[in-house]
């Protein structure tokens, strides 16, 4: 991409666009949010993204760090220090989706089939620790792949969590007709602010997708835990249509939670048209509960990978 074209594209709400291709696979990675705006395989739109002239709807494709999901009242404590984050979900009085989903990332490497983006998070009120976040996005015959690295560039330990927010679809098939498989034995119970207040086993309930079943009218904005893993410690969530077409979102052992959202609060044109299937390193409100929070020591680097394949 030449300089003039990059300058022109940077005026898009999602900033500069990088298109990566390999065979029949193509993805568009964006500067704002450092995420994936579009992904197609053999001409089929696997990710329900957004247009270049649009702002990301429902955090579509964003990287969510240094925490995923919500923090109650934006308040938490770490190492004896009490902290207050901006309330970025004011209607529910929560801090949501971290600090980098509306930030600009920059490319440090790019080729035909991959691009690596970096964002340096500066210390700020509510999160006084510097982090360097890096994501390498690539496409191949195996699908779309994201490889994350996060390094604590400060002098003291920092709490950390990460998730991503892709919406996947089978074109032409409503969410209600999709079969969903989530290899998890429990789910979090939430209050009216979508914050966890307990947990329940999914076995025998409408939230039991361990063997895969048709979603129907089930409404999901649900964090699933106690994930059943493969031999390498990873897991995968699978979506399939009656005609056999399907999408799999996989994640390695760094991600022990899945959030599934059936798009019920999106605008009418996006209502229940796709499923947000989000690999998470920790559950909602983890900075308060401490559950599965990564503590990054000075100079330490966390790594994790996930991806999407279509069948």
Write the layout of secondary structure elements.
Blueprint: H1 3-9, E1 17-22, E2 25-30, E3 36-41, E4 44-45, E5 63-64, E6 70-72, E7 75-78, E8 81-84, E9 94-96, E10 106-110, E11 114-121, E12 131-140, E13 143-152, E14 158-160, E15 163-164, E16 167-168, E17 179-181, E18 184-190, E19 196-201, E20 213-214, E21 221-227, E22 235-240, E23 246-251, E24 257-261, E25 275-280, H2 286-289, E26 294-296, E27 301-310
Antiparallel strand pairs: 1-2, 2-3, 3-4, 5-15, 6-9, 7-8, 10-11, 11-12, 12-13, 13-27, 14-26, 16-25, 17-20, 17-22, 18-19, 18-21, 21-24, 22-23, 23-27, 24-25
List keywords for this structure.
single chain, 311 residues, mainly beta, Beta-galactosidase, Chain A, domain 5, six-stranded antiparallel β-sheet, 2 helices, 27 strands
Compact overview of the structure:
This protein is mostly beta strands and 311 residues long. The protein contains 2 helices and 27 strands. The longest helix is centred in the first third of the chain and has 7 residues.
């Amino acid at each position: 991409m030449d300089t003039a074209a990059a300058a022109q594209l940077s005026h898009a709400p999602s900033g500069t666009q990088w298109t990566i291709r390999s065979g029949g696979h193509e993805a568009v990675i964006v500067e704002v949010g450092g995420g994936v705006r579009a992904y197609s395989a053999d001409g089929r739109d696997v990710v329900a993204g957004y247009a270049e002239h649009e702002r990301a709807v429902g955090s579509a494709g964003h990287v969510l760090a240094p925490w995923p999901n919500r923090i109650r009242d934006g308040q938490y404590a770490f190492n004896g220090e009490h902290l207050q984050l901006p309330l970025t979900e004011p209607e529910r009085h929560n801090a949501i989706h971290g600090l980098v989903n509306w930030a600009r990332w920059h490319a440090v490497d790019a080729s035909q089939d991959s691009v690596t983006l970096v964002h340096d998070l500066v210390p700020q009120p509510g999160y006084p620790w510097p982090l360097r976040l890096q994501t390498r996005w690539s496409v191949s015959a195996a699908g779309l792949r994201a490889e994350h690295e996060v390094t604590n560039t400060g002098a003291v330990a920092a709490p950390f969590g990460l998730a991503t927010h892709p919406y996947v679809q089978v074109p032409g098939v409503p969410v209600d007709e999709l079969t969903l498989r989530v290899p998890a034995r429990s789910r979090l119970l939430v209050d009216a602010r979508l914050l966890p207040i307990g947990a329940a086993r999914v076995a025998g309930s409408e939230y039991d997708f361990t063997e895969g079943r048709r979603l129907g009218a089930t409404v999901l904005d649900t964090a699933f835990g106690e994930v059943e893993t493969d031999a390498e410690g990873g897991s995968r969530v699978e979506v399939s249509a009656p005609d056999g077409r399907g999408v799999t979102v996989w994640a390695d052992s760094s991600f022990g939670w899945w959030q599934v959202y059936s798009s019920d609060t999106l605008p009418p044109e996006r209502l229940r048209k796709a499923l947000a299937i989000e690999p998470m390193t920790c559950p909602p409100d983890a900075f308060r509960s401490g559950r599965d929070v990564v503590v990054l020591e000075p100079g330490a680097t966390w790594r994790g990978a996930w991806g999407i394949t279509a069948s």
